[in-house]
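Suppose you are handed a protein chain with no further information: no name, no annotation, nothing but its sequence. What can you learn? This example shows the usual starting point.
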Amino acid sequence: MCTEKCRGDHTHGDIDDAGSMHPFEGIGSGYAGPIAERVFSAFFRAMRIHGQTLFRAVGEKGLYPGQARCLWIVHRNAGIAQRELADRLHVARPTITVMLQKMEKAGLIMRRVDEDDQRLTRIYLTDEGMAVRARLEQALGEFVSNGIGRMSERDQLEFERLLNLLCENLSSNSTGTEVHEHK
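A reasonable first move is to predict its three-dimensional structure. Written in structure tokens, the prediction is:
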């Protein structure tokens, strides 16, 4: 790890915080060049730290990340059908059934059979589920504030632009259409 304030004009030897070699070391050197490799390494490191921090924040509330996302979706879509929830979470229906059983047992959600269509099960947050979701929202707000919120407004806007460009390029590349290079 760099012991001086990083100016981005050198590499970090692709060693992560635990002293391990970066799993994708050298991946970009034959393809996009050393700058792209450093950007990828920094992006990968940020994603890893983001994931660890978010997992820890969610875990402190007694949930798994999938359950936290489930709370948000049900909060915004009270009475969502169980199969639609599975689709939105991109999980198999048996997986959502197990997740909801655990959340129901914890008192976070309740399931009700649809009055008009008995084949459908509708999902609602309980008072406890709403309280946990509110605490998660506060933790997420602190997470955003501590990370992105510490950047200048100009840097935030540039970061947003670059992330949108990355998403656009990755989406375009996966569909076989033209990749964009914006300056």
